[in-house]
Specification:
Elements: E1 3-7, E2 17-20, E3 30-40, H1 42-49, E4 58-59, E5 63-71, E6 83-87, E7 97-101, E8 106-107, H2 114-134, E9 142-145, H3 151-162, E10 166-171, H4 174-182, E11 187-190, H5 196-203, E12 209-214, H6 221-226, E13 228-236, H7 250-254, E14 259-261, H8 265-268, H9 272-288, E15 297-300, H10 304-312, E16 320-323
Parallel strand pairs: 9-10, 9-12, 10-11, 12-13, 13-14, 15-16
Antiparallel strand pairs: 1-2, 1-4, 3-5, 3-7, 3-16, 5-6, 6-8
């Protein structure tokens, strides 16, 4: 019997519950998918906890790979048996089967297996828009990336190095530092024990970096601003330690006419063309060998609460997936 993970109230991982579902048949422009691997991302915990409010009860999960079982009227370019993946669209990826709009699906190349796809779609396309479009990093530039050992961070380090950038990565432990060094990160700092600002200034000849990418939030915000060169950009795309505190815009001018942005993937893949271009760029990086990604942990779908606990405790590195 198909089932899905849902929640009727916000809170800790214990609010997640398994429910039998009737999937039905796809309507016009839709397909029915049998999931083979499901991505787990920090945004899922924000939605479950209530930080990002949802209408309840709700499903959860934005990323998965699977096989199309049936297509509805008007669907072109996709058929039963095709391997596909998605990142975004209606919530509900934490499920064995579901109906999805065909417009949000990307057909998977033969070289990319389902588990890899579920590990990279949301995080990899996030890296794509962050380093190519939010701030277009150029060869030779030095960037600061917080949480470099996380799922997004590991992809980012590899992507940036393949484009000739110099990467300063921060991590929260020595074990995570070793992981990031193996990926080619030029300089690794422990944001729990190192003086990150002093180190960044020293590594950049006192000037600072042109861009800081920060998914940590509250714990690294002030230091991030102090690491930026004049007219540098602070890119806030997550809140692992809590939300960035409110601040007066005057602070940005006082620290060097800085830019602050809070982007999200949905706005960078808003059209079908943008989605396909972003996924295509990601797949090419994987196929070329510039990026090597595999899930660092797998959990049965029924153990999703434990997956959330481990993610929030920062007990994981890289990408984690659920297996139906």
């Amino acid at each position: 019997m198909p089932y899905a993970i849902r929640f009727a109230r916000t809170g800790g991982p214990e609010v997640l519950a398994s429910e039998a579902v009737e999937v039905g048949v796809p309507g016009p422009g839709e397909v029915r998918i049998r999931h083979t691997a499901i991505g787990v991302n920090f945004i899922d915990t924000y939605q479950r906890s209530g930080l990002y409010p949802l209408a309840l009860p709700s499903g959860l999960g934005q990323e998965a790979a699977g096989v199309i079982e049936a297509v509805g009227d008007g669907v072109t370019g996709l058929g039963a048996g095709d391997r596909v993946a998605y990142a975004g669209g209606p919530l509900g990826a934490y499920s064995t089967h579901r109906i999805m709009p065909a417009s949000v699906l990307v057909k998977l190349p033969d070289e990319i297996d389902d588990e890899t796809a579920a590990s990279i779609m949301l995080q990899g396309m996030t890296v794509e828009y962050l380093v190519r479009r939010t701030f277009a990093v150029q060869p030779g530039q030095t960037v600061l990336w917080h949480a470099a050992a996380g799922g997004v961070g590991q992809i980012a380090v590899q992507w940036l190095k393949s484009e000739g950038a110099n990467v300063i990565g921060t991590v929260g432990s020595d074990a995570k530092a070793d992981i990031v060094r193996r990926l080619g990160c030029d300089h690794v700092l422990n944001y729990r024990s190192d003086d990150v600002v002093a180190a960044v200034r020293r590594l950049t000849g006192g000037r600072g970096v042109p861009v800081v990418y920060d998914s940590v939030g509250k714990d690294t915000f002030e230091r991030s601003l102090d690491c930026l060169a004049p007219r540098g950009m602070f890119v806030s795309f997550g809140n692992a330690s809590g939300a960035v505190p409110a601040f007066a815009p005057l602070l940005l001018s006082q620290k060097g006419s800085l830019f602050f942005t809070r982007p999200r993937l949905a706005d960078y893949t808003a059209t079908r063309d943008e989605l396909l271009a972003s996924a295509g760029a990601l797949f090419e990086k994987v196929r070329s060998g510039a990026i090597s990604v595999a899930p660092s942990a797998r959990y049965p779908l029924a153990q999703v609460a434990q997956a959330h606990r481990d993610l929030e405790a920062r007990a994981t590195t890289g990408s984690i997936i659920l297996v139906p």
